[in-house]
What does this fold into?
Amino acid sequence: MATSDTIVPPPLPDEQERISSATKFITLAVILLPLFGLVAAALFLWGWGFSWVDLGLLMGMYFLTAVGITVGFHRLFVHRSFETNSTVKFILAALGSMAIEAPLFKWVAVHRRHHQHSDKPGDPHSPHMHGKGFLAGLRGYWHSHIGWFFSPDPSDLDHYVKDLHQSHVLRVANSLFFLWVVLGLALPAALGGILKGWPGVWTGLLWGGLVRIFLVHHVTWSVNSACHIWGTRPFRSNDESRNNFVFGILALGEGFHNAHHAFPTSARHGLRWWQPDVSYYIIRLFSVFGLAWSIKVPSAEAQAQARRNGSDVSLTSPEAPGARPDVPVLPAPGLMLIFWMLLGAASGINLLQIVWHVFGWEVGEISIAVPVGGGIGALAGIFLGLIRDPRMLVLVLAVFAGAAAGAVAGRLPWGPVGEISGLAIGGFLGGLAWAAWLFSEPDGPDRVEPPSATDDILAGGRTGP
Ligand SMILES: [Zn+2]
Ligand SMILES: [Zn+2]
It folds into this structure.
């Protein structure tokens, strides 16, 4: 792991010149168009080929198998960024295998090789090793996204996973790859059948199986391709890795890839308050239940040392006077603000609906609830965005939830007085409980690991002199 005295500012060659802006825009279109196409297909098929059950199976299977890749294959097995017990390891290995990217050992070996040689000869999927110019850029993108998948395996892959071979549980999970593949398809088909009858078997297999596999592949491979092309580079990482907000969201935190290459053994990739890192939240949730420990996160000092410009995330790469600006992107804090406003608006609408329903107000519920609740929620989103602490968002949502619960409870025995006091008391207690839990959580590293030889190998051996 990178520590303050081993981080040496790498030379900054003409990195910006490696891939042209035109190539970058085309790669972005290639990545985003299938996603838009899928949304369009889902809307078009709504009602007969796609329903709430299929949407649930798609999102549920996406979430479970993506977590198997991000939390399991990547952060646990490749980088050992936290520790857990054998049962959790086995389940994560099975879920990750259901994504059908590769059996566990091969996936881990290829990815460790990527870190060792990142964007240099030997990197299995760098977009930058195909020469300069427009066509070379496109070839590089294609190779990094999917082309590498069809390249012959390097002969030394076993060398990278000697530690995993020691584990009986992981050897078994690895050898059962084809069972996990079949289960990953059979599960959504069976659930679809239970919930919707025979037609549900086919739509469940289609949306929870095939479409879900396409989505998980496209998104996780975009971390290899887009996140080495598109985004910001706040940290010195000796390669072309980027923090990319879109894939930060879609890939459950993995898109903050520059931070990951700077701190490979960190369990947290979205290191800033406005970088949502769902995989890290899951690891923290595991730790609440005693299922994760030794969670590694770089200290504030190590992060400050590794920054390219010694200050906040830069969108303009001021590291060299006269350097070309980085690819212009919407400032991530702005995106986070919009995200919160939407979330706030949605919860505002829902809250009003619930409360009005409880009070039995029926006139114009929906038509009034949308602008009023949405407006209040959006204002709350702006307010929370200015506060800059996501825990505040959770706190306010908890107050909403508590208030709604209080309103429901208050409706039962005591009439209008009971409703209002139930609303107030429920909101207050809900907020208090969440605040007590959230603010007792340490925000810093759980444990700063001393650098060791093993860490250095897992980190790709890139932190040495
Ligand atoms: Zn990478
Ligand atoms: Zn990695």
In short: The pocket of zinc ion (ligand 2) is lined by residues 74, 78-79, 111, 115, 260, 264 (CB under 6 Å). The chain has two domains: 15-299+449-458, 333-439.
